[in-house]
Amino acid sequence: MASLKSWLKPVSYLVVAAVFFFLIRSLYQNWQGIDWNKINFNPFYLAFSLVLAFTGLLISIFLMTKILASLREEVTYWQALRIMGKSQLAKYLPGGVWMTASRMYLAEQEKLSKPKVLLGTLVEQEYGFVIALVLSIFCLGFRGSFLAVDLTGFNLLFLLLAVVFLNPISLTFLLKFGMKLARLDYPDWRFSFRLYFILLLGYSFCWILQAVGFFFLAKSFYDLDYAWLKRFLGIYLFSWVLGFVAIFAPGGLGIREGSMALFLKSYFPPGFAISLSLIGRVWITILELLLALLAFAKKEPKV
User: Fold this and answer.
1) Which of 23, 64, 151, 230 minimizes the number of CB atoms within 10 Å of its CB?
2) How far is residue 257 from each of residues 31, 52, 287, measured CA to CA in Å?
3) Position 21 pLDDT exceeds 80
């Protein structure tokens, strides 16, 4: 196991570096193919994209307070902001566990229950992942194909799994199993249907805000018709899903950009597709840094 961990970090960064190398090389080769007549920078759309996506992040913090409140762990919005905002930066470390580990540490600093914060994080990640997957399926079309592979059967399977993983009964069983693996006691907690609907609607709204923000990011420098909105939502969300499951890539680095460029190239010139995927990474990183700055700026009140 120690040998595996020693290889994980260099391999992770090697994969990320390779993906970005090929993306940048492809961008250089296709630079002349960009239709510059359609390039028209609009600062209003750029600002609007940031506001939409950042609002989604702030709402996700509110949802975490609702999860912890259901666990009888009273937490203020600012406590949740400090924990989630600061821990976002740790996801860029290889291994896929450092964001969760940092939340446990920060929970202790905030004098909160580490098992309950871990449980809340597991709920948040499961709902975020499954809802993003389901929304991407509906936005891209339930019946469809990609690279000559019919995805209809896979989409049906994913939707059935979503029903299984998100309903309170199955989720409670899975959470107990996850806490057991972490060697932590499962709190006396039952996942209610009320919380289920709050999280279902809440995380769906957060993802839609962020994905619509991505569309306006693209529209801020490229002439796009609103007919592309649904397609952009699906591509953004599915690229995030692929980056999430690629635990070898810190924060989905490289995987999200590569998959997004691949999907966009089906509809747009390669130069535009690759440029947007790279700009999208800078955009989301700026949002995460803004959230982290807000988290560090909001000091814990002295007692």
Assistant:
1) 230
2) 17, 21, 17
3) no
Segment 42-89, tens digit of pLDDT: 999 999 999 999 999 999 999 999 999 988 888 999 999 999 999 888
The H-or-E segment that residue 149 falls in is: strand 149-150
Q: How far apart are CA 133 and CA 137, in angstroms?
A: 6
> Where do the structural domains in the chain lie, given as residue ranges?
40-296
299 Rama class: left (phi>0) / alpha (psi -120 to 50) / beta: beta
Calculate the alpha carbon distances from 169 to 124, 152, 232 in Å: 16, 27, 34
Which residues have a Cβ under 8 Å from the Cβ of 235 and sit 6 or more positions away? 136, 140, 260, 263, 264
Strand segments, DSSP code E, in 72-117 are none
Confidence check: pLDDT of 103 > 80: yes
Q: What values do phi and psi take at 149, rounded to 5?
A: -110, 125
Phi–psi pair at 150, nearest 5 degrees: -75, 120
Each residue's pLDDT tens digit, 166-196: 777 777 777 777 777 767 677 777 778 888 8
Q: How far is the C-alpha of 48 from the C-alpha of 220, rounded, in Å?
A: 9
From the list 217, 223, 249, 250, the residue with the least C-alpha distance to 90 is 250
Compare 224 and 216 and report the one with higher pLDDT: 216
CA angle, 241 as apex, 135 and 86 as ends, to 5°? Answer: 110
